[in-house]
Structures are given as C-alpha cells and as structure tokens.
Amino acid sequence: MSHIISSSDLEQRVAQLFSSVGATKQIAQQVAANLVLANLSGHDSHGVGMAPRYVDAVLEGNLKPDASTLIKVDNGMLLGLDADTGFGQIVGVQAMNIAFERVEKHGACIFTLARSHHLGRIGHFAEMAVARGWISIHFVNVLSRPSVAPFGGADGRFGTNPCCIGIPIGVDDQKREPFVLDFATSRVAQGKMRVAYNKGERVSPGILIDGDGIPTTDPGVVVVPQPNGRAGALMPFGEYKGFGLALVCELLGGALSGGGTWHKEYDGRRAVLNNMLTIVIDPKKLGSGTVFASETLEFLDWLKKSPTAPGSNGVLLAGEPERKARADRGKNGITIDAATWQELVNCGTKIKSAF
After folding, report:
1. Comparing C-alpha atoms, which of 98, 111, 108 is closest to residue 68?
2. 102-151 per-position pLDDT tens digit
3. Are the C-beta atoms of 162 and 248 separated by less than 8 Å?
4. Would you say residue 312 lies in a domain?
5. CA-wise closest residue to 134 among 285, 276, 249, 253
6. How many domains does the chain have?
7. Alpha-carbon distance 355 to 16, whole Å?
8. Same domain, 19 and 130
C-alpha cells in the first residue's frame, strides 16, 4: 500500500537515516531536503528512493558523509575541484558557491568537479544560478554499473550521463520563471526504472533491452540481478544523437575533470560517483544583458502562441512541469509506493535507526 506523506515529515525521516551513519545534523538535513525536493518536483527517480543506496555507499566506504569540496586548481575563472567522494548534494552546492564568487569578479566561471557521490537532480544547481540571473551549463558522467547501451551496441557501456542548462528569463519587473532543461542522455533516467519496477509496472517499448540485447518492457532488467547474470540496458535517446551527447558528458565530465570514465567490469558497489563540467555566465557582463532579457521574453512568448496540437496540453517549457508538481505535491503530499517505503524501513532497520 502506498503512503502519502508531507514533505517536512519525509525530510525528517530521511535525515535521521543519514545522521545514523555519521552525517552531521546540518548535512543530513541538506541532503534529505534535496532528495525530497526532487520528489516534490515530480522526479521520484532522484528522490528519497535513493536514500538506501546512499546509506549502503557509506557502509561500504565509498561515500564520506563529512567530506567537503577541495580546490585543486585555481586560475581565477577556471577551477579544478575535487569532491573527495562526499554527498553530491553538499559538495555540488559548495562547488557552485565557489564558482559564484568568481562570476561576481570575472563575469564567468568554468569548473570541473571530480569524484562526487551522486549529485542528485542536476537542475538544482542550474536553479541556483538562474536565481542570480546567470546562465549555467552542466555535463555529468556516472561511475556505477554501466546501464546504457551505445547506439548500435547490445549491452551497457556507460551511465545515464545527464546534461543540464539553466537560462534566466527576463529581468527586473519583467522577470519570469526560468528555463531549466535537465535530462538524462538515456531515453529515461535509470531511477525511473527503479520506480516503475517498485510499482510493478511495465515501461514503454523502445526504452530497454535485456541481457541478450533483445527489446523488453520489463524494468527489472536494469534494476535487479538477472537469472542469467546478464543485466539489461537502457537505450540512448534520439539514437546516435543522444549517444553522441552521452559521450560528450563522459569525456567532458569524466575525462576532463580527472575523475575518470567507465571502462571496466562492474564491481558490485552501491556507490554512484559523478564528475561534472560546469560553465556559469553572467549575461550582463557580456554587455548583452538588456538584449538577452528582451529576446528571451519575445521568443518564449512567440512559442507560447503556437496553436495547441490535438491531444496535447499546448507548449510546455522546461521547468514548468516541475513547478506545477511542486505546487500540487506541496499541497497534497508526496506519494511513496509500497516497495520504496519498505526499502526505506528496511534501511532503517539495518542501521538500527527509525524511519
């Protein structure tokens, strides 16, 4: 039976799990709040269902609950940062705040962040930038069980490798909600397969292949161990186009940061490590701030005037579904499916902590 719970109650329960494995109260609360915000935003794939895996990562020694971002290279607006396998929700925010200091001074900052534990919803970092009226671009790779097949391939060779771009819209009295594009380069995020599996649902054709490379609608092929020992894989979106962008994330997020790319057999670890390349730009410092603001408004207004296509709800812009979900779930509560709820309860039992 599913559970409906308020965001505040859920946040406190999840924070207790992290406190029980060594996180300070402040860190535990910040990580829990970030996961709950993903649920509120309609992205259960990046929400509290990840908490048991985070706890396992701490227990296996591949996630340091007290780690902070370290500056390894500092060339003013160009930074090389190391996350020391800390909580991504902590070190990612620290990295963005370090970058913001440089944007204030130089008008832009480019940084790499290596060896972060799971960064969560990358859109969170873009939202930090657009709140200041700045643009941010993120390329991220994933070091965990390779769950996405290359275009033309028949098994997993890399991760879901997200790409995210945040753009502020308008300025001052004409300021509107920002454009925040945040997506996995696989057809869907890996976490959505976990959510579907826990709900006992099949998924749409064209998303998955099984361990033999045969198309399937069973999300379990990328969620639980398979009888033949061969895991299935997600497919990249857009065939060779999504595959190409996934490689960009792997090479710029992983190789350029020094955090590494995936090219080995899966070792069974529960930890999920991310590496990220981020670019933050203040459009005002380019001298085009006024034009940029007016053009974004005029172009998006132009898009919104498109007639509604049959069977659709009209033109939606990136960021709008998340804001709608936050309003709805903030008012009516967050629904946690029975299997995910039991995983959280079991996690608490394992570490002798209430959930």
Report:
1. 98
2. 999 999 999 999 999 999 999 999 999 999 999 999 999 999 999 999 99
3. no
4. no
5. 285
6. 3
7. 7
8. no
